[in-house]
User: Which sequence fits this backbone?
C-alpha cells in the first residue's frame, strides 16, 4: 500500500511545480556593480558609467538609382529594324563616261572597206571612210598611234576623210575611229574604226 501512495504524491508535486507552485516570481538577477572601497568604513558607491567615445562611422554612399523605364502605350508594336545599305559612290578618277544612245540605224554603221585604205606611203594623204548613219548631223574622227596616243581630232559632215600627211611622222601602224553625232553634238552610236599602216617609200 505504501508504494502506490508514494507515486501519487510524486504526481501531485510535479503538477504543482509545473503550474508555478510558488506565489512569488523569482527576482531578476542583478548585474554586479563595481564598488570602490574607501579607507575606514566600507562605503559602497556605484561607479558612474563612462561616456562612450565618439567613433566616426564610415559614410554610406547610396547606390545609384536605375534609369527610369520608358512607359509604352498598350498598343505599341515594335517596328522591324531597317538595314541601311550604302549606295555605291561614283568613281573619283576621271570624268564620268557620256552615255551612248543606240538606235536601230546604228546596225549598218561601220567601216567602208571599198574606200578606206589599209596601207599608204609616208608623205601621202591616206583615205579613211565609213557608212552613213540616219539621224547623224556630223562625225567625230580620232587618229591614234600604236601607243593609243591621240594625234588628230576632226569633226566633219562627210563620210570620208583624207588625213593630213603631217600626222604620220614614221612608218608604223596607226588606228582611226569615227563616232556619229546628232545635231546637239551627242554621240548616237558606238565608235567604229580600223587600223592603217604607214610604210616607207
Assistant:
Amino acid at each position: 500500500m505504501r508504494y502506490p501512495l508514494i507515486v501519487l504524491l510524486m504526481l501531485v508535486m510535479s503538477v504543482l511545480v509545473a503550474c508555478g507552485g510558488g506565489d512569488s516570481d523569482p527576482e531578476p538577477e542583478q548585474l554586479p556593480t563595481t564598488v570602490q572601497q574607501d579607507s575606514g568604513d566600507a562605503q559602497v558607491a556605484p561607479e558612474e558609467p563612462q561616456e562612450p567615445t565618439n567613433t566616426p562611422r564610415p559614410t554610406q554612399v547610396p547606390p545609384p538609382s536605375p534609369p527610369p523605364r520608358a512607359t509604352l502605350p498598350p498598343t505599341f508594336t515594335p517596328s522591324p529594324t531597317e538595314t541601311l545599305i550604302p549606295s555605291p559612290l561614283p568613281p573619283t578618277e576621271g570624268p564620268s563616261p557620256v552615255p551612248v544612245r543606240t538606235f536601230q540605224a546604228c546596225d549598218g554603221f561601220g567601216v567602208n572597206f571599198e574606200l578606206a585604205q589599209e596601207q599608204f606611203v609616208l608623205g601621202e594623204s591616206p583615205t579613211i571612210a565609213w557608212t552613213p548613219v540616219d539621224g547623224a548631223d556630223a562625225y567625230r574622227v580620232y587618229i591614234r598611234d600604236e601607243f593609243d596616243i591621240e594625234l588628230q581630232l576632226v569633226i566633219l559632215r562627210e563620210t570620208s576623210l583624207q588625213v593630213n600627211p603631217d600626222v604620220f611622222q614614221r612608218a608604223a601602224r596607226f588606228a582611226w575611229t569615227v563616232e556619229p553625232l546628232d545635231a546637239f553634238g551627242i554621240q548616237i552610236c558606238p565608235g567604229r574604226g580600223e587600223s592603217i599602216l604607214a610604210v616607207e617609200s
The longest helix spans residues 2-18.
